[in-house]
Each structure stands twice: as structure tokens, then as C-alpha cells.
Design brief:
- With 222 residues, the protein is an alpha/beta fold.
- Helices cover 42% and strands 15% of the residues.
- The chain is built from seven helices and five strands.
- The chain has a five-stranded parallel beta sheet, sandwiched between helices.
- Strand 1, helix 1 and strand 2 form a beta-alpha-beta unit.
- Helix 1 packs parallel to helix 7.
Length: 222
């Protein structure tokens, strides 16, 4: 009997406040994935006290480098994962330092500048889905006037997809996320999160159903 593989989503959250809307987004995403019959692993970087600093001894390509225990643990999760989902607020137009640190220390642990220029994808991340759910207090029209969202997608999303060889799961941005949100706005936003989670679940289920391992979940499963 062939053992079936349950797709795993690794959700990386970068917001310090446990009562933040970003936490609500991450929790809704994880709950939707689990209700679909897939696995969701939440990595709350602030709760984990994740160190975003890339220290000299851990720079890729250094002959004397070593892998720290926290990075090894994250890579083990990613290796067994099928989708990586970032959840974070925009701070000064960019992801928080703790998210960038996760990219520097975890995603980029083994990828050297030479690999990047030679278009050699990362062995752990290649062909995994990468998606983002982000928020901002400012509005989308204001961000567009600054050219910020397009800059972020080019400098962060598309660049990471290209150098790591990941598949594009999309970037969904929620604007005007401020204190005292109206209940209807909260409901609509979390409904979109649920929709995006189900969409990626279907992509993973469909991909697995065409693999040699055989069908796992029907693409139309709810």
C-alpha cells in the first residue's frame, strides 16, 4: 500500500502583537488549510524569539561556516513542506526586519552569490509554492502613488521566486488595516484569506494527484 502525502503549508508570521490583525490572518489561513484536510504549521517568529541577524560565521559559501540549531529546525520544516506563506505588515514600505532575517538566515542558508548568478535553484525550496498575505495601515491608492507595492513585488516576491526556484502562489495585500476595524471589513478580509488558502490547497492537491504517488485530495474538495 502506497502511503499518501498530506500537503504541508509552513506559515511564517512576522508581527509582534498577539492580538494583531496579522495574527488573525495567519490563524484563519491555518484553520482553513486544516479544514481542507491539509497540514498547517505556524511559525510565529516573535513568539519563537527568532534572531534575524545573519552572523559572520553563517554566511553562505564560507569554508568555516556552521548551521545554527534554530535554522536547522526551520529548514527541516521547509524540506517537508509544500507551500511557504509569509504573513506580515508593511513597515516603512517593506517587510519587517524579522521577515527579511528569515529570508537571510533560513531561505538563503545554502544559496551562494555564485548559485544566484548561475541560476542554480535551492535544493530545499525548488518547486515549492510561495505566497504572501500582507497588510498596511495606508491605503492601496496611496501605496500605488509611491510605487511601493510594485517595488515590493519586484524586489522581494519576484526576486525570491526566481533565485530560489519557487512557484508563485500570489501576493494578497490588505490595506487600511487600522485599530477599531469595522466588523464587516474584518469579515470580508478574512473571507479573502480563506479563499486564498483554499485556492492554494487546491493547487497542491491537484499537483499531487498527477504525481506518481497517486491522488490524495480531489481538486474540488471543500
Amino acid at each position: 500500500m502506497i502511503a499518501t502525502h498530506v500537503p504541508r503549508h509552513v506559515v511564517v508570521l512576522g508581527h509582534p502583537a498577539t492580538d494583531s490583525f496579522n495574527h488573525a490572518i495567519a490563524e484563519k489561513y491555518c484553520a482553513t488549510v486544516r479544514a481542507y484536510g491539509q497540514e498547517a504549521v505556524l511559525r510565529d517568529l516573535y513568539a519563537l524569539d527568532f534572531d534575524p541577524r545573519l552572523h559572520l560565521g553563517h554566511l553562505p559559501g564560507r569554508q568555516t561556516r556552521s548551521m545554527s540549531g534554530d535554522v536547522a529546525g526551520e529548514i527541516a520544516l521547509l524540506r517537508d513542506g509544500d507551500a511557504i506563506v509569509f504573513v506580515y505588515p508593511l513597515w516603512f514600505g517593506m517587510p519587517p526586519a524579522i521577515i527579511k532575517g528569515y529570508v537571510d538566515r533560513v531561505l538563503g542558508e545554502a544559496l551562494t552569490p555564485r548559485d544566484i548568478t548561475r541560476h542554480i535553484p535551492d535544493a530545499v525550496l525548488q518547486d515549492k509554492w510561495f505566497a504572501t498575505l500582507s497588510t498596511s495601515a495606508t491605503t492601496r491608492p496611496w501605496l500605488d502613488e509611491q510605487g511601493q507595492l510594485e517595488s515590493l513585488r519586484n524586489a522581494f516576491d519576484r526576486y525570491l521566486l526566481k533565485i530560489f526556484g519557487m512557484r508563485d502562489g500570489g501576493h494578497t495585500h490588505f490595506d487600511a488595516i487600522v485599530e477599531d476595524l469595522q466588523e464587516e471589513h474584518v469579515r470580508q478580509t478574512l473571507s479573502i484569506v480563506e479563499e486564498q488558502a483554499r485556492r492554494l490547497c487546491k493547487e497542491l492537491a491537484a499537483g499531487r494527484s498527477t504525481s506518481p504517488a497517486g491522488a490524495l485530495l480531489g481538486a474540488d474538495a471543500e
